[in-house]
Amino acid sequence: MQSKEYVRPMPATWWLHNIHLKLFMIRELTSLFVAGYAVFLLVLISHGDDLKTFTDTLLCPTAIIFQLIALPFVVFHSVTWFNLTPKAIVLFRGEERVSPRVIAGTHYFLWAVISLLILIVVL
């Protein structure tokens, strides 16, 4: 006689019962906005022959609304990735492991420096 394998039922909302899983799913959702904004910029760069067309397109109301919607998603995605980097990058200094705070802090510092440099160039 052949036994039947037990398949535990899994509701579609399984991830709503744990805050860590909710944050993970939100982070995965934000990657769609990051990809969408990257595609938007790639299409804009590929069709814009001059700087005026590029800036005019970026300053149109639809593009501004899209950028304002995408900004919090991109920032959340970046912050969660920078918090994850100590798990993805394990560094050793001799026999001693580098502190996860140093790894994440370096990423945040470089993000701030690059953002400041871009702000200086734009203004």
Question: Please, could you describe this protein's structure?
Answer:
- The chain has 123 residues and is mainly alpha-helical.
- It has a single domain (14-122), classed as 3 helical TM bundles of succinate and fumarate reductases (Up-down Bundle), CATH 1.20.1300.10.
- Helix content is 72%, strand content 3%.
- It has helices spanning 19-47, 51-58, 61-88, 100-122; strands at residues 92-93, 96-97.
- The chain has a two-stranded antiparallel ribbon.
- A hairpin with a 2-residue loop joins β1 and β2 (96-97).
- The radius of gyration is 21 Å and the shape is flat.
**Uncertain segments of ≥5 residues (pLDDT<50)?**
none
In helices, the fraction of residues equals over 70%
- Tell me the fraction of residues in β-strands, as a range: under 5%
CATH superfamily: Fumarate reductase/succinate dehydrogenase, transmembrane subunit
Question: Any idea of the CATH class?
Answer: Mainly Alpha
Major beta sheet, strand line-up: 1-2
Number of domains: 1
Question: What form results from the Cα inertia axes?
Answer: flat
Number of beta-strand segments: 2
Q: Report the span from N to C terminus.
A: 78 Å
In the CATH hierarchy, the third-tier topology is known as: 3 helical TM bundles of succinate and fumarate reductases
Quick check: average pLDDT? 90
- Report the biggest beta sheet as strand number plus sense, adding barrel if it closes: 2 strands, antiparallel
Give the oligomeric state of the chains in this entry, treating copies of one chain as homo and distinct chains as hetero.
Answer: single chain
